[in-house]
Specification:
Number of helices: 9
CATH topology of the largest domain: FAD/NAD(P)-binding domain
Distance between the termini: 40 Å
Structural class: alpha/beta
Helix content: 25-40%
Largest sheet: 7 strands, mixed
Strand order of the largest sheet: 7-6-5-2-1-8-19
Strand content: 25-35%
Protein name: NAD(P)/FAD-dependent oxidoreductase
Keywords: FAD, Flavoprotein, NAD, Oxidoreductase, Signal
Number of strands: 23
Shape: globular
CATH class of the largest domain: Alpha Beta
Radius of gyration: 22 Å
CATH superfamily of the largest domain: FAD/NAD(P)-binding domain
GO molecular function: NADH dehydrogenase activity
Pfam family, one: Pyr_redox_2
InterPro entries: FAD/NAD-bd_sf, FAD/NAD-binding_dom, NDH-2
């Protein structure tokens, strides 16, 4: 009787899980195990690039590569997980409901931007979290040229001074001038509740970030938060207000809500606790990977971040280990002790750091060249060639991007 590994999600972690599982099954010479992946869209959406221009183009097709390695892709959305009977309920892209059985499950449904219950946030704020949302922001910026020349029209507020907020803000002066004219008096303001820009990035790269933002003309407001959003700006919790027709919300991520359907321990962001093989604690046969997994990267107490750098290797490990579990083969514990960051700083350049202390190694144009390679080459899927895809999916191949 054939068996099935079911992977939910086609982001970085889901895609690499599917390729890695198929690789080990092929290596074992087994033709009785199916790798099935369910996702709403047969594309990898290159989410780390959605702060750039042209977000609608930031995706890569997956059907050909899945066909090349023997992964069965099913286009649809999983709505319920029934761990007690090894089944999921899904709705296909045509609206048909179905129940799918699995022998092993990999949850790789990623994360979403955290949107708290701030009045007006849902109605008036933009984001770069998903492809359609980033495209909506791009269309809005281009439309500003048709509006009256006012301070609100010329001002962008970026709410959240973390990784995504900084990268987005660094792009905005040039994008506003492209829409409004080079002589436009543009104003970009980052609002951050913490007392420092890039609070999660630490002190290491902060002088470089501040230098770049100053030269780009980006301002920041620290120790203050947005209390509401309206069509013309944001009131702040310190009693002030910033007039703006363009408010971009970038403050934090939360794991997919499907994690709530698995009775297991979760962290404050909703991620499932997993062991070193990425199996969900206390739930046999279920693995979590990417942004839905809280996994140790090393033996020094460091844990994965919600980033493609970790998701890619988490996917390779989860795919190998779920297949090894079913095949009765040895697992390869996930380990990714090297940690780097490469933060895009718009036309100014970028900053590249190494280690959890984020020691600056490159900045300016040199770091920008590295960031360009990461964004346009390293994070994309391999070609739709079986051997090449299998080689790239080997979990012993640790990629830092």
């Amino acid at each position: 009787m054939s068996k099935r590994i079911l992977i939910i999600g086609a982001g970085f972690a889901g895609m690499w899980s599917a390729l890695s599982a198929a690789r080990l099954i092929d290596e074992a010479g087994r033709g009785d195990i199916e790798v099935m992946l369910i996702a709403p869209d047969p594309h990898l959406h290159v989410r780390p690039r959605l702060y750039e221009e042209g977000p609608a183009n930031m995706k890569a097709p997956l059907r050909d590569i899945f066909d090349a390695v023997g992964v069965r892709f099913v286009q649809g959305t999983v709505e319920r997980i029934h761990v007690d009977r090894n089944e999921v309920d899904m709705v296909s892209v045509t609206g048909e409901a179905a129940t799918v059985h699995y022998d092993r499950l990999v949850l790789a449904t990623g994360s979403r931007l955290f949107r708290p219950a701030i009045p007006g946030l849902a109605q008036y704020a933009f984001s770069v979290d998903q492809t359609d949302e980033a495209a909506e922001l791009e269309a809005h910026i281009k439309s500003l040229a048709q509006a009256a020349d006012t301070p609100a029209r010329n001002t962008v507020v970026v709410a959240g001074g973390g990784f995504t907020g900084i990268e987005t803000a660094a792009e905005m002066p040039a994008r506003l001038r492209a829409a409004l004219g080079e002589q436009a008096n543009v104003n970009v303001v980052v609002v951050e509740r913490a007392e420092a820009i890039g609070p999660d990035l630490g002190a290491g790269p902060r002088p470089v970030i501040e230098e770049a933002l100053r030269e780009l003309g980006v301002k920041w407001r620290l120790g203050a938060g947005v209390t509401s959003v309206d069509a013309n700006g944001v009131p702040m919790d310190d009693g002030t207000r910033i007039d703006s027709n363009t408010v971009i919300w970038t403050a934090g991520l939360r794991a997919s809500t499907l994690t709530e359907q698995i009775s297991a321990r979760r962290d404050a962001t909703g991620r499932l606790y997993v062991d070193r093989n990425l199996a969900v604690e206390g739930v046999p046969g279920v693995y979590a990977t990417g942004d839905v997994a809280r996994a140790a990267t090393d033996d020094a107490g460091n844990y994965t971040m919600m980033s493609c750098q970790h998701a890619m290797n988490l996917g390779r490990s989860a795919g190998h280990n779920v297949a090894a579990d079913l095949l009765g083969l040895e697992a390869i514990p996930y380990s990714q002790p090297k940690y780097v960051t490469c933060l895009d700083l718009g036309p100014w350049g970028a900053v590249y750091t190494e280690g959890w202390e984020r020691e600056v190694k490159l900045k300016g144009s040199e770091a920008k060249q590295l960031k360009h390679r990461i964004n346009t080459e390293w994070i994309y899927p391999p070609r739709a060639q079986r051997e090449e895809a299998f080689a790239a999916a080997d979990p012993r191949r640790i990629v830092v991007a």
